[in-house]
Design a protein that fits this description.
With 429 residues, the protein is α/β, with parallel strands linked by helices. The chain has one domain (96-428): Rossmann fold, CATH 3.40.50. It has 15 helices and ten strands. The strands form two sheets. The chain has an eight-stranded mixed sheet, with helices on both faces. Strands 5-6 form a two-stranded antiparallel sheet.
């Protein structure tokens, strides 16, 4: 008998969806969610963890690994599976290809039928689009400016103009410029954007104070990599960085007055419910397979990452499990705690930070044009050596420009969403 069959809706208290859960950071987020839920929640609480992968084989393998992880966690802490003192964990797998909008729509329909609510959505899945490393530049850059280049690398190579497969069979001249979208943009931002809009009703049903949308960004979301005139990053060899900068902009400006008319359309909620809140997190520098390099070089990369940590970098988490610290904290912290932190320091980007001994924590992350919480005059609180070389302290003009870019981005994203939903509907009709 499956979990879904033997557990009634009333048994579940927390519903969390994690995209891209079959490996790397996504899988680590699931493991850490399970561990911290088991160790911090009352026995009367339970977690339904919904994971997405691109195919059924990956879903089956991931569920099997997560079940084994649950068993090992309980065994390590001497918690019997059937003990009434242990919170229950239920797993549900779904498949979605974020680069195919119809696949996203199919997932929306399945979730709307099978779930009564969602408390948190962690938008982790995505593509790097990297093609390799400029090795001569990498060697020179690391030797001459080790800590900066190991945190904010300038030597990665990316493809330019990569597109998804056609989304519709008969594109019209009145809609988007073609039947395709930028592949990195669609996977990292737009596919998630459509998904969250489609399940807004489930987030509004959250039994918590408000549902949460947690976008996964990166330290490499540089201000110079994004242009509103190239929303999809198709003209840039830094498409990944462009998509993460757009992620930062959308999340951090989602509660500003200048964006509300579009945010309210994106996340509509009944008048008697609080609108879901959007947050953004980054995992620090993790050793994952997002960058294609020879397996022998992985050992050198790992050694360099640990060295960067030992000489004082707060961002070299190295392992995905430690990189999952900030997003899991955002998912499990009480709304009162999050609101209190934001009242004191403003709404900012949260990162998985670490000390030289390997103790991780959730820490504010500086964002170009926004600072650490959108408050002018706040100190960054990190050594200069940890900051991006081009970083400047936040001022009123910079914050206003960031807000105006946010307004333009929200307007453009909503326009694109409406266009594509109409095109897909027309083709179905």
């Amino acid at each position: 008998m499956s979990d879904r069959q033997h557990a009634s809706v009333e048994d579940f208290h927390s519903y969390v969806l994690v995209t891209g859960a079959n490996g790397g950071l996504g899988y680590a987020i699931c493991c850490r969610l399970i561990d911290e839920f088991i160790l911090t929640r009352l026995s009367s609480h339970s977690l339904r963890l919904i994971i997405t992968t691109r195919d059924k084989t990956k879903s089956h393998d991931t569920i099997a690994k997560l079940k084994d992880h649950i068993f090992r966690t309980r065994k390590h802490h001497k918690l019997h599976e059937k003990s009434p003192l242990v919170p229950k964990i239920y797993l549900q797998s779904e498949q979605v290809d974020l680069c195919q909008l119809r696949s996203v729509q199919t997932l929306i329909k399945r979730l709307s039928r099978s779930l009564p609510k969602l408390d948190t959505v962690i938008l982790n899945a995505g593509l790097g689009g990297f093609t390799g490393i400029d090795w001569p530049l990498a060697i020179w850059a690391v030797l001459t400016n080790f800590r900066q280049e190991m945190t904010y690398p300038t030597f990665k190579l990316g493809g330019v103009g990569d597109l998804t497969a056609p989304q519709i069979s008969n594109p019209t001249s009145g809609g988007p410029t073609s039947s395709q979208l930028g592949q990195i943009f669609c996977s990292n931002v737009f596919g998630h954007y459509l998904l969250v809009h489609g399940i807004a009703n489930l987030l509004s049903n959250s039994s918590a104070t408000s549902g949460r949308v947690i976008w996964i960004s990166s330290l490499e979301a540089y201000g110079s990599t994004f242009s509103i005139d190239d929303l999809q990053g198709l003209s840039s060899p830094l498409g990944y960085e462009s998509s993460k900068r757009l992620t930062d902009i959308l999340a951090l400006t989602s509660r500003l007055p200048v964006t509300q008319q579009w945010v309210d359309r994106f996340l509509p909620s009944p008048s008697n419910h609080r609108a879901p809140k959007q947050y953004v997190a980054q995992p620090g520098i993790c050793a994952t397979n997002i960058l294609p390099i020879h397996w022998i070089m992985v050992y050198f990369m790992m050694a360099a990452l640990y060295l960067a940590r030992w000489i004082g970098s707060p961002w070299h988490t190295v392992t995905s499990y430690k990189g999952a610290c900030a997003p899991v904290w955002l998912a499990l912290a009480s709304q009162e705690e999050l609101d209190a932190v934001e009242r004191d320091g403003g709404a900012g980007k949260w990162g998985s930070a670490i000390d030289w001994q390997g103790e991780e924590r959730a820490s504010r992350t500086e964002v170009q044009g926004w600072g650490i919480g959108g408050k002018v005059g706040d100190n960054v609180g990190l050594p200069k050596t940890s900051r991006l070389r081009e970083a400047e302290d936040l001022n009123e003009d910079g914050r206003e420009r960031f807000a105006l870019v946010g307004r333009s981005c929200w307007h453009a994203m909503e326009k694109l969403r409406v266009e594509w939903e109409e095109l897909l509907k027309e083709e179905d009709d």
